[in-house]
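Morning!

As promised:
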Amino acid sequence: MAERSQKEVWRLTPWLMIVLLLGNFMLMAFDAREIGTGQRMIRVWAQTIAHFVQAPVTTVSSAATGYFQSIVNLRNAQDENSMLQQRVQELEVQLKQSEDLEAENERLSSLLQLKEQSTYRVLPAKIIGRDASLWFDSMIINRGSLDGVQLNMPIVTNGGLVGRVTAVSPLTAQIDLITKDKSGLGGVIGQLGTSNALGVVGGSGKKELLEMRYVPGIIEVQVGEKVYTTGQDGIYPAGLRIGDIVEVKSGSATATHQILIQPSAQLHSMQEVGVLLYEPPPRPKFEETLPNAVKDEKKK
Amino acid sequence: MEQVKITVALIIAIMLQWTLRNVAEPLMFVDFPLIIVVYAALQGNAIRALLYGCIAGIAVDALSGGLMGANGFSKTLIAYLVSEMVRRVYLDNLLLRIPVIAGACLIDDLVYYGMHRLLGQEMTVQPVPTIAYTLIGTTIAGTIIYLLLDSFFNERVRVRRSEYFKTRRQTRRRNPIRLGKRTRI
């Protein structure tokens, strides 16, 4: 019985197949006839029913995809992060370089301004070396006797006085800062001519500060006042700014003031300086006969 | 019961066909309904396979932008061809089913494409790469799905497998130290 039914099935199958194929072909032909629209009742119903499955599946699948995507993104972000960190470092270096260039430009501009403002010729120079030991404040500049640099020529920046040339070679020169213990220059509190608070400015034993001595105690001195060169020391011209008074230990009629000055030049961070091509006026005859003047002559 | 299982599998396959493309684009190259239709045809009931093929095809057509009935036509034809093949050739083996699903996929695609060209429809994709990718995707997915379906649905296969891979009898090892031990009689 079962075999017969199986045979019947086999007999029926081709006919059923033909019917189904014909049905499908008619559907296709009907569908192909109307090219303009794909709107069919069966399609509308199928898509409406499928929507109820599609919507939650899409929600779940997008959540799952989003989760895995976030993991992938995290991994990508890690690589991207390291790449960006490297880029940031490169940019930081570039930024530092541009900042340095900007600062250098600013310094050189101020030096140029100084040169233009100064009544003396200013030879721009670059600091190419600093004292190897910590004990002295000497520096080496890239200008020497071939550029016209001579001994004792003042060194300045836009901020103020820096020091003087203490040794000259053809291509370089050594300078001593005004903060050096043994340095000394004539200084005046306030403008020369209007003030009589004269004294000698020299190193204080503290690297950052200068000391002004021999200012009479009867003269009123205020913290914050500016100190300028007098031009009477035979090295520095008059009117160069030395610094500002930061501390005053008042003297009396018989004792002088003890004044500490903050140099106006950035002595420890400067990179360019100017050499004032200044030759002091010849000394009077009687000065030339003094013992130290004779010593100088002998040295020369 | 098996009829219900295959019907459920077919419904799931149609839904997967429609939804999985949203999840991952490469999954569009797997023709899930065709896999189930071929599986149904491989079970030996030709009439049921034809009906499955026709309904699954029309359902896919309804959810796609092609001509209505094109998939129904091709899948009905595939169901018939596979049923006829099963009647003549023994195909109750996974290795033999792989070329069957590959061939079915190829014929299905060619018929589908041919019917559209016959009725003056222009396809939006290149036929050769699409057919090639579908062939690969459907064959691989079909092989895996047949393994799963056999292990879940087919009682015969399950019994046969348990006969093939019987659990080994565990023999007790004798303690080698005790072997050399003298025993008093």
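Helices of chain B lie at 2-23, 32-42, 46-62, 70-88, 94-118, 127-152, 155-164, 176-179.

Hope this helps with the figure draft.
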